[in-house]
Design a protein that fits this description.
The chain is built from 16 helices and 15 strands. The chain has a 7-stranded mixed β-sheet with strand order 3-2-6-5-4-7-8. The protein has a two-stranded antiparallel ribbon with strand order 1-9.
Length: 460
């Protein structure tokens, strides 16, 4: 089986030039574990299975026209393909789907291609999508997942991923990537359903299939979580699902997250442990438990679990953890990770609905650390205005200041604001890496100017 790989030029580069030695190794281990968490190749969707009902969606096409699943769904089956222009296997899946669409569109089959090129689709991205549609001669709807909302709602793990749905949005078949045997089985399944015959025997099941009763209870728990009024009942439904099918791992993972969000750490760890007892190489459980141990300063134990996760045989790279709590941690002293929520000065982007996505693209990027644009340009895209509090300017218009002054600080010349600032948060004034007086031209004391002494001698 071939593995889906991130194009070489898009592999993230080291996070910060000021990290070195053991500190760099530990920080990068956590960063890479969070950014490229791996899941078994048998899984297509994180938390959804054959027999589960997926959420409805509404997205715009290349012409800006909005359509929902209900608007486009086929009379018998609908193929929903999550794809990207940079994925070679995506081309194969889209071309295969076009042939099926041509042959069976009049017999009840519809195809919907959902593009997931990035968190924020630029004009260049959309042009690339349009070119791909023309190159492959696609006649079925191609929708743009701006913000990756559908990507995350479905829990997509790898690109491409294909989900076969009936008119009620119930999953009938799922496939990650484009393996030869798996794709042939999927095609036979679709044709058999359309023609009303029994499909050929499936050579290998795609992951564990829970019994219908357990799956029904599990779906009730997922629905409960979406309701503020009924959220507390999710615990009951997940427990029922686990009891109905003792081999079903996902209810334990969902219970673990349920307890973790409610600060019941011991109960959460118990559930992740149960998941690992049933499935020792379940990457989601390994990473969730690993990060819980990191929070408790059991760094080596947590790192070991996450390292195990990325060595699981048969995996696909994914970024579905980018919005999880993992990126809520930043490099701290002595190689530890500090929780952003506990620092005095937090990056304002983390206070918005976008959270980490205000600056990072969870899928691909041409810039270091999955940034959505060149670092200094990204900073100045927000710092091009004054920010006030109680009528006073607390953050000046940095773009205007730089434009008005000809002589710039060395890191600014190198387009690297992170040489002095921690872009996530800090316990120092204005997110600085080290102490610096809040009042400029304060009397000199080396302890007050540790920031400057990172590069300059303290005898200056």
């Amino acid at each position: 089986m071939k593995f889906l790989r991130v194009p070489p030029k898009l592999v993230p580069r080291p996070a910060a030039v000021f990290l070195s030695g053991k500190r760099f190794t530990l920080v990068m281990a956590c960063f890479l574990s969070s950014l490229f968490c791996q899941v078994p190749a048998g899984a297509t969707l994180e938390g959804l299975y054959v027999g589960a009902q997926v959420p409805d969606f509404s997205l715009e096409d290349l012409n800006g026209q909005s359509s929902s699943f209900a608007d486009l769904s086929g009379e018998k089956l609908t193929m929903v393909i999550f794809w990207a222009t940079w994925s070679r296997n995506s081309d194969k899946v889209l071309a295969m789907a076009q042939k099926l669409y041509t042959d069976y569109k009049e017999k009840g089959l519809t195809v919907i291609a959902v593009n997931a090129d990035g968190q924020q689709l630029t004009a260049d991205n959309i042009t690339a999508v349009s070119s791909k549609v023309q190159e492959l001669g696609l006649e079925y709807p191609v929708l743009l997942d701006q913000g990756l909302s559908v990507f995350h709602d479905y829990g997509v793990i790898a690109l491409p991923s294909t989900v076969i749905l009936d008119p009620d949005r119930t999953i009938r078949y799922e496939l990650s990537g484009y393996p030869i045997v798996g794709s042939e089985e999927m095609i036979d399944f679709i044709v058999a359903q359309i023609e009303g015959r029994a499909p050929k025997e499936i050579v290998q099941r795609k992951g564990y299939q829970p019994n219908k009763k357990a799956l029904r209870f599990y779906n009730m728990g997922k629905k409960a979580l979406k309701s503020k009024r009924m959220a507390a009942t999710a615990e009951m439904w997940f427990k029922k699902a686990a009891e109905a099918d003792p081999k079903f791992v996902q209810p334990h993972i969902s219970l673990g997250r349920f307890y973790e969000e409610r600060d019941q750490a011991s109960k959460a760890q118990e559930q992740f442990d149960l998941a690992l007892q049933k499935e020792p190489e379940n990457v989601v459980a390994l990473c969730e438990l690993g990060m819980m141990l990191v929070k408790e300063d059991k760094f080596e134990e947590g790192k070991a679990l996450m390292q195990k996760a990325i060595t699981v045989e048969g995996y696909y790279p994914s970024c579905f953890y980018c919005q999880s709590s993992y990126l809520s941690y930043i490099p701290g002293k002595e190689g530890k990770m500090e929780y952003v929520g506990e620092v005095k000065v937090k990056h304002a982007g983390l206070e918005t609905d976008k959270l980490c996505l205000a600056c990072h693209d969870p899928l691909v990027s041409d810039y270091a650390n999955q940034l959505i644009m060149q670092p200094a340009e990204l900073c100045l895209s927000c710092h091009d205005r004054e920010y006030t509090h109680d009528g006073k300017v607390v953050v000046p218009n940095m773009k205007a200041i730089l434009k008005q002054n000809k002589v710039h600080h060395g890191p600014i010349i190198q387009n690297d604001c992170s040489a002095c600032h921690n872009p996530h948060g800090s316990n120092n004034f204005r997110m600085l890496l080290e102490p610096f007086p809040e009042l400029f031209y304060a009397p000199y004391q080396a302890s007050n100017y540790k920031l400057c002494c990172m590069c300059h001698q303290n005898t200056i």
